[in-house]
Amino acid sequence: RRNLQLTIESISDAFLTLDHEFRFTYINSQAERLLGHGKGEMLGRPVQDVCELGLESPFIMQFRRAAAERQPVALEAFYQRTELWLDMRAYPSPAGLTVYFQDVTARRRKDEQLRLLETCVAHLNDIVLITEAEPIEEPGPRIVYVNDAFVRRTGYSREETLGRSPRFLRGSKTPPEAMGRIRAALKELRPAREEVINCTKTGEDYWLELEIVPVADATGKVTHWVSIERDITERKLAEEKLRASEASMATAQRIAHFGSWELDLNHDNGGANPLRWSDEMFRIAGLEPGAVEMTRELFFSLVHPEDRESVRRASAEAVRQSSPYSIIHRLVRPAGQERIVHETGEVFLDELSDQPSKMVGTAHDITEQRLAEKTLREQATLLDKAQDAILVRDLDHRILYWNRSAERLYGWTAAEASGRPVMEFLYRDPAKFHAAMEACLAKGEWVGVLQKLGKGGRALTVEARWTLVRDDLGLPKSILAIDTDITERSKLEQQFLRAQRMESIGTLAGGIAHDLNNVLAPIMMSIDVLRLEEQNPRRLGILATIEASARRGADMVQQVLSFAEGVRGQQLRVQVGRLIGEIAKIADDTFQKNIQVRSDVPADLWVVQGDPTQLHQVLLNLCINARDVMPDGGVLTLTASNMLLDEQYAGMNIEARPGPHVVIQVEDTGCGIPPEVMERIFEPFFTTKGPGKGTGLGLSTTLAIVKSHAGFVRVYSEVGLGTKFRVYLPAQTTPDSGNEAPAQAELPRGHGELVLVVDDEASVRQITRQTLEAFGYRVLLASDGAGATALYAVHKDEVAVVLTDMMMPIMDGPSTIQVIMRMNPQARIIAASGLNANGMVARATSAGVRHFLPKPYTAEAMLQALRLVLQS
After folding, report:
1. Are 831 and 813 in contact (CB under 8 A)?
2. CA 63 – CA 57 distance, rounded (Å)
3. Phi/psi zone of residue 668: left (φ > 0), alpha (ψ -120 to 50 degrees), beta?
4. Distances (CA, A) of 432 to 437, 438, 450, 483
5. Taking CA atoms, which of 353, 422, 745, 823 is between 20 and 30 Å from 297?
6. Sign, Cα dihedral of 468, 472, 473, 477
């Protein structure tokens, strides 16, 4: 027993026994140390009390489990009192429990550190790969560890990777010399650092900055290699792009003869500041690229002696002022050739000292350009006598050459135009200019019409011919432009187009007038027939109203014909007050309700001689214009007054004539007319209204009508306040006896005469027949010229008068008249027409017709014409 106790005391594990109540019955010295209590404190006492263990403590729970199941138990847990990790094993015995403890704190801490290290490595962005140290040669060492970064970048899982040689990752593009250096380092057991290309699982190559470090054991023997790999693919691609960009820049500089340089201002060794030149700078100077170590002083030795001082001053001033500079000077090559260069430079300041640290600049060889410009100027001198304007501009659109004809056409001298951008003073339409420029650059030439400006803002229309001029390398360098002044020709073309348009409108108007005449003719003739059989005053009043409306419609048709054919309107005594009253009522009824219409006409207003329909149109045009400039409402005022113009007034107004005038004023409270628009308001087709809202004929027609009445127009306007139109018409001061309606005259009757009526409109034929028969005539009807000639051939001895329309299908009026006159040269013929289309009236007159009846005609007019013809 003594020997057993000595043995238990000498073991490294803690040993103790517990009874069934978990009271200490024995404890060795190692247990005292691990549990932190002496034997006297523990023996006979419950373990939970001595060790301050709660009922839920892992130790107590395992003790209970061993006692209950009569099975050994094991536990590794942290003991709070001594702050140690204990590996505990408990074995059931007849007396209770036999317990062994072992201190595993050092191992647990080492494991924790390893887990922490492994976590850090696993989450690195860099790839970490660990291999065994052997073998160096084929097949190579085996991989024993890879981190998460490896899996993400390569696409290989750990299962696919562990146990294999890293060489399966090597891409075919890895430089062989780099791999040779790596193998040499591994053989010599020293670290290696190289850039290699690996290949992912999907076959994608990627660049790595690889660092391999040997790891030795306690004896110093290398057991493993740790490889830290940084992905540098983006950096390599950027470097490749940079090299390609630098190569492209060098090529571009060589093609454009455009060199670049950089001067170090921090190392001034007596003028020998380091000067870095691009390859093209050397070529411009006639040197092999990199042939000499360039300095600022060496550069000055290449500058032409006459230009050297000015170049020194320009660069020195740029450094002193920390400002850019630009200068054109000559370089003398070693072989003696002179080159003209345009040098620019810019100073950069040190971020810390705020002092000039370097200067960066360019040098453009413009020798060929200057020679070409000189040649071009010499050749252009010969063109000064040309009638066309000839100018040359560079690709920045600045004038290089301007001949005498350009001076005459545009008004600027060559000195004023030279060097100026053309967009600054020549062009009014930038979009058209840029479109032409694109076409010229694309095709080498362009021809078209441009709107330009002369000195003082004169509008010019030119026919331009542009040619792209290229240098010896075929690169664009300038534009040769030849401009022909076609301003007057364009105006004539526009007038011709307007005349054509007016002719087309006139033709259309004539056709409409013809159809309207045929519509109105039956109405006007029916009124007289109906009045014969009507005695009721009320119905007679209705007939009078219908007759007045029809006559107004006929007057409008005549106005259309006046517009279409330029026929002068009828001249009657006109009460302007009545016209103003009618227009005021029309405006009040039809204009928007936010426009107030006012009128003021004196009772003693003089009368004027003129066409009431045309004057009606004048007032209507002015009122409509007033309405259009008051979209948000306002006041429209129509007034009239008597005015006697004297010699003095007539002397101040070239259009006025001395004498009595009626002044009609149309005033609005609209937006007013700007001064720049005022000059053009009476131009035909000029309008400030949007597309589809105005023809530009209203005021021009108004002015034409007023002038045809020997009157004139004055306009007064202020922007924002409104406009006044004053129409001056010559007046008659004698009383107007024509205001009363004439008494109804007795209509002439026939005595059984036979009348041949020829008209293509059935309604006109029918009402004409009814009217003639009501007034004692017999009637034959024909719908066209062919039918009329056939009837006349049968009844020529009976037919007293032929009443024929001038515009009919199949055979028109003039042709019908000619056939009838051949049958009977003494035939009495009345030609009815609403217009003189295609010279029909002239043709009828030449055939012998002397009597004409304008359509639409009333029964009275027709009966009077018949009586006149029958009595002749």
Report:
1. yes
2. 10
3. beta
4. 9, 10, 8, 15
5. 353
6. negative
Name the one residue in this structure whose structure tokens are 């045009």.
Answer: 621
pLDDT in tens, 125-139: 788 888 888 887 777
Burial class (CB in 10 A: 0-12, 13-18, 19+), 39: middle
Cα within 13 Å of Cα(113), Cβ side:
6
Q: Identify the pLDDT of residue 136.
A: 73
User: H or E segment at 460?
Assistant: strand 459-470
CA distance 274 to 265: 8
Q: Name which of 397, 402, 396, 425 is nearest 414 in CA terms.
A: 402
pLDDT digits (tens, 9 = 90+) for 609-643: 888 888 888 898 899 889 988 988 999 999 999 98
Q: Closest Cα to residue 605, out of 738, 705, 735?
A: 735
Beta-ladder partners of 780: 756
Q: Which two three-digit tokens encode residue 783?
A: 């719908």
How far apart are alpha carbons 792 and 786 in whole angstroms? Answer: 10
Angle at 440 between CA 436 and CA 444, to 5 degrees: 165
Can the peptide bond before residue 421 be classed as cis, meaning omega within 30 degrees of 0? no
Assess contact for 77 and 54: CB atoms under 8 A: no
* E strands in 704-854: 712-718, 722-732, 754-758, 778-782, 799-805, 829-833, 851-854
Distance (Å, whole) CA 327 – CA 361: 11
Residue 420: which residues within 8 A CB-CB, separation 6 or more? Answer: 398, 399
User: Could you give the 3-state DSSP secondary structure of residue 749?
Assistant: coil
| Length of the chain as a residue count | 872
- Tens digits of residue pLDDT in 144-193: 888 888 888 888 998 888 888 888 887 667 777 888 888 888 888 888 88
3-class secondary-structure state, position 803: strand
At which residue do the structure tokens 């030279």 appear? 418
Does residue 650 register a pLDDT over 80? no
Q: Which of 560, 552, 563, 544 is nearest to 586 (CA)?
A: 552
Start-to-end CA distance of the chain, whole Å, equals 181
- How far is the C-alpha of 554 from the C-alpha of 370, rounded, in Å? 78
Report the amino acid identity of residue 671: C
Residues 6+ apart with CB under 8 A from 61: none
The C-alpha atoms of residue 686 and residue 862 are separated, in whole angstroms, by: 43
Each residue of 447-486: pLDDT tens digit?
998 888 888 888 888 899 999 998 878 889 899 999 888 8
Q: At what angle do helices 762-774 and 859-871 cross, to 10 degrees?
A: 70
In angstroms, rounded to a whole number, what is the distance separating the alpha carbons of residues 811 and 871?
Answer: 29
> What's the rounded Cα separation, in Å, for the pair 327 and 314?
7
Handedness of CA 254, 259, 264, 267 (dihedral sign): positive
Bridge-based pairing of strands 595-600 and 476-485 is: unpaired
Check residue 430 and give left, alpha or beta (phi > 0: left; psi -120 to 50: alpha): alpha
Distance CA 24, CA 53 (A): 14
Rounded CA gap, 542 and 554, in Å?
18
**Can you give 681-736 as a three-state secondary structure string?**
CCCCCCCCCCCCCCCCCHHHHHHHHHHHCCCEEEEEEECCCEEEEEEEEEEECCCC
Within 217-337, strands assigned E span: 222-231, 258-264, 275-277, 325-332
Structure tokens at 678: 């005022």
134 touches 113 (CB < 8 A): no
Distances (CA, A) of 113 to 16, 173, 269, 487: 32, 40, 59, 95
> At residue 91, what are phi and psi to the nearest 5 degrees?
-125, 130
